[in-house]
Amino acid sequence: MRAVVLREPGPVEHLELTELPLPEVKPGWVRIAVKAFGLNRSELHTRLGLAEGVTFPRVPGIEAVGIVDAGGGFPPGQQVATMMGGMGRTFDGGYAEYTLVPANQVIPFRSDLPWAVIGQVPETLQTAYGSLTTGLDLREGQTLLIRGGTSALGFATATLAKDLGATVFATTRQKDRLDTLAGHGVDHPLLDDGTVAEQVRKIVPEGVDAALELVGTPTLPDTLNATRVHGTVCFAGMLSNQWTISNFYPIGYLPAGVRLTAYGGEADDLPAPVLQRHLDRIADGEASLGPVKVYSMAEIRQAHDDLEHNRTAGKLVVLTGRAEGAAP
C-alpha cells in the first residue's frame, strides 16, 4: 500500500510518500481501506516535533474515513470513520491506503456523499460537538464567541451553535474572510485586531455567555475579557501552536467570575447517531461544515505547507485515490 511516513520531525520534506506492507489484522482491531483523511493541527505538531508521546518512524494521521476491509466484527464494505486513540502517534495513522485501528474507535455510518466531503467531518465534528456540549453546555438563546472562526473547527462549531439557536460571534485575522463567515451564518463576524473583547462588548455590553478558544494562549486573555461574569470559556484549539501559560496565577489571570474549561475528546465522544445525523443534513443541504480543499496523496507536502501557513479557510482533506467501494 501507499503511505506517508514521517521518519523524524522537521520540514515538509520529511513527509515521504512510500510503499509499506499491508497491516496485518489482529484480534480486536479493524483494517480500514482509507478513502480520505483530514489534516489536523495535531499532525502539524507531530511533524514540527511539538507533540509528546510520538514514536518514529510513524505514519501520521489522527483520523480517516473509508470502508472496512477486515476484522473487528464489522461486515466488509461497511463505511466507517475512525479517529484518535493513539492514531498517528503510538501506532500508524490515517495517512495511508489502509490503516489498522482498535475496533472501539470505529464509527459506522451510511452516506452517498463524496469521500472528500465525508473526510472533513469526523474529528472536526467530534471536537465541535464535545466543545459545545461538554465544554460549554451551550443553550438556546445564548451568545457564543468563536476565536479562529475560519478554521475547520470554527466553521463546524458555528453550524452546530446555530442549530442550537445561539447567536454566534466569530473572528478572523484576514479582512477578506469576514464575508465568508457571514455567508456561513455567523451573526457577528469580527476582525481579530487584538481588541476582540472591546468589539464584543460594543454589541453585548455584559459580554458573551460562552466562548470557544481555538487560537491558543496568545488570545486567551482577550477571549476571557469578552465573556460575561458566570460565562464560560472552553480552550479546545491551538492554531497558534502555543498552549501553555507561563507563571500562571489564576487570580491575576482570570477575570472575576469567568469560568475556564477545556475539551479534548476521543472517538467514543462522537456517538454514531450524531455523526449519521450530520452527514444526512449535509446531504440534504441543511448544513455545512464550511469550505474544504482537496489534495491527492502525492500533494501531501503542499497540503501540510498550506496547513502550517494558514493559506486556506476550512478543512484540508486528502483523497487516497482508492476507487473500489467509493461513495458516488
TrEMBL record:
Keywords: NADP, Oxidoreductase. GO terms for molecular function: NADPH binding; oxidoreductase activity, acting on NAD(P)H. Pfam families: ADH_N (PF08240), ADH_zinc_N_2 (PF13602). It comes from the Bacteria. The keyword Transmembrane helix does not apply. InterPro entries: ADH-like_N, ER, GroES-like_sf, NAD(P)-bd_dom_sf. It comes from Amycolatopsis rifamycinica. This is NADPH:quinone reductase. The keyword Transcription does not apply. Residues 10-318 form the Enoyl reductase (ER) domain.
